[in-house]
Amino acid sequence: MDGGQPVSFVTAENIFQSYGARPILERVNVTVDEGEFISIVGASGCGKSTFLRLLLAQERPTRGEIRIAGAPPAVEPGLDRGVVFQKYSVFPHMTVRENIVAGESFRTTWGVFSGAHKKAARDRADDTLARIGLDHVADQYPATLSGGMQQRLAIGQALAAKPRILLLDEPFGALDPGTRLSMHDFLTELRAETRMTVFMVTHDLEEGFKLGDRVLVFDKPRWDPTDPNAYGATITYDFDARDGGIPFQRIEEDTHVLRPA
Amino acid sequence: MRLINRQPGVALKAALMALPFVLTFVAYWIGSEIRLAENPSDKLLPAPSTIAATAERLFTEPDRRSDRILLWHDTAASLMRLFLGVGISALLATILGVLIGLLPHVRATLAGFVAVVSMIPPLAILPILFIVFGLGELSKVVLIIVGILPFLIRDQSQRVLDIPREMIVKAETLGASSLVIALRVVLPQLLPRLIQSVRLSLGPAWLFLIAAEAIASEVGLGYRIFLVRRFLAMDVILTYVLWITLLAFLMDLALRTLSRKAFPWTEASL
C-alpha cells in the first residue's frame, strides 16, 4: 500500500492441514499487511473455511504456523481475533446493548461489569449502537431483529473487543441481495474508520472483489480423477483487487489540466 | 379442503377440549348408576355425589383419632419430598450437565457412567435404599433423585452440546474464560431448557414418590391411597387421585409460566 511499512502483520507459513488421512490444505503461504482487507474465495470444499478456522486458532495446522504481529502461534481463539459467522454470532439471551457490552466485559473474571465500570461500558455500547444504527433496538433481544441487523450487531460486538484482526465467515451469506448491498456499505464505512485488518470468506466473487484489497483464490492445484480427495487445496491466485481490480491504472489520470466546462 | 388445513373455531375448540372430560365423567356416572341400581351398597364405583361428599369431609373435617385434617398433612409431606427430590436433582443435573457438556475431560469420565447408571430400574434398588437410608424421609427423596437424575443429566449435557459451537468460539474471541462461558453463555441458555426437562420428569417423580410411600411410610398421599385400599374406600382413593392430578397440573402450569416470565428471550424467537 502507499508507502506503508512493508512489515507483514499476518504470516501463514507453509500451512498443511489434514483431517485423518485426508489432506485439506497444502503448502499455503501468505503474508498480509496491517489494514488490508483480504477476500477468500473458492469452490465448496476447497478449504476456505478451514483456513479461516486456522486463522482463528479454532484448529491448529498439522504443519506450519500462523503468526499475528510476530506473536507465537495461538493455541486457541482469543482476544486478538474477532469473528463473525454466518449464523449464531450473537448471544440470544442478551439484549442488543448487553451483547455489545459483552464485547468488553467477557474478559473479566466473572464476565460482568459492576458500578462505575458498568455505567461507562453501557455508555460506550450506546455510542457503538448509534454508530452501527441499532440504537433504536438497544433493549430488544436479537431474535426480534432482521438478519442484516443481527449481522451488524455481531460485527459491532466483535469490534467492541478491539481485536487485531477481524475474521468474517460468509457473514452475508444468509441475507437477501438488498440487505447485502447495504451491509457492504456498512462494512466499507466501518473499515474506513477503524483501518482493521479483515479476512472475509465468501461465495460471492463480486462481493470479494468489491470489498477486498486482495482476493485469495483457494483451489486444488493437482487433481486425481480417480481419487478427488487425494490432494489438498492451496492459494492458486492472489489478485490485487484495489480500484476494482485494476490498481495501478486510472481510467482518467489526474492531470491538473484545466478542462472545458 | 384438506383435513390438515381445517381449523376449529373458538367455540368448537373449547367444546372439543371439554369433550373427553365430559365423556369420561358420563361413562363413569353411567357405570356407577348401573352398579348401584343392582347393589346399593356397592363400593367399587361410588356415585359422583358420594365422592363429592367424601372430598368435602376429607378437606375440611379433622380425623377423629388424631384430630388433624389428614389430607393436608399428607399433601404437605408428599410435596416436601417431591420438591426436595426434584429440586436437588435439577440442581445436580445443571451443574453436572454443564461440566459434562463443556469439559471434554469430564465428558470422557462421566458420560458413559451416567448412560449405564440411567439403565438401572430405580424401583429395583428401592430395597437397597430402604436398607441404606432407613425408612424415613431420606430414602423417599433419594428414590426420586435416583429415578430422575440420570435422565436430567443426560438431557442437560446434551442441551449444552447442542449450543452452536460458533457461539462458544465467539465468546472465546471476546476473551471469555471457561468459567465466564459456563456462567454467561451456557447457563442462561440452559435454564429454560431445564424447566422443560423438569416438567417432563415430574411424571416419573410422582411415580417414584407414590411407590416409595406405598411401601413404607406413615404419612403421604401415596401412603393414604394404599392404606384405604384395604377397606375398598374407592371414594377416598378417587378423591386423592383427582387431588394429585390437580397438584401435578398446577405444578406444570407454574413451571410453564415461570419459563415464560423469567426468560423473555425464548418467547422472542417464536
UniProtKB/TrEMBL annotation, chain A:
GO molecular function: ATP binding; ATP hydrolysis activity
CDD domains membership: ABC_NrtD_SsuB_transporters
UniProt entry keywords in alphabetical sequence: ATP-binding, Nucleotide-binding, Transport
Annotated PROSITE patterns: ABC_TRANSPORTER_1, ABC_TRANSPORTER_2
SMART domains assigned: AAA
Pfam families: ABC_tran (PF00005)
Domain ABC transporter: 10-245
Top-level taxon of origin: Bacteria
Stated family: Belongs to the ABC transporter superfamily.
Protein name: NitT/TauT family transport system ATP-binding protein
From TrEMBL, chain B:
Location(s) in or outside the cell: Cell membrane
InterPro entries reported for this sequence: MetI-like, MetI-like_sf
One record GO biological process: cellular response to sulfur starvation
UniProt entry tagged with the keyword Protease: no
PROSITE patterns per UniProt: ABC_TM1
Membrane topology, record value: Multi-pass membrane protein
Transmembrane segments: 12-31, 82-103, 110-132, 138-153, 174-191, 203-225, 237-255
GO CC annotations, alphabetized: plasma membrane
Entries under SUPFAM superfamilies matching the protein: MetI-like
Pfam families: BPD_transp_1
ABC transmembrane type-1 domain segment(s): 79-259
Keywords noted in UniProt: Cell membrane, Membrane, Transmembrane, Transmembrane helix, Transport
Entry keyword Lipid metabolism: no
PANTHER family per record: ALKANE SULFONATE ABC TRANSPORTER-RELATED, MEMBRANE SUBUNIT, TAURINE TRANSPORT SYSTEM PERMEASE PROTEIN TAUC
Similarity annotation: Belongs to the binding-protein-dependent transport system permease family.
Protein name: NitT/TauT family transport system permease protein
Source organism of the structure: Marivita hallyeonensis
Source organism phylogeny: Bacteria, Pseudomonadati, Pseudomonadota, Alphaproteobacteria, Rhodobacterales
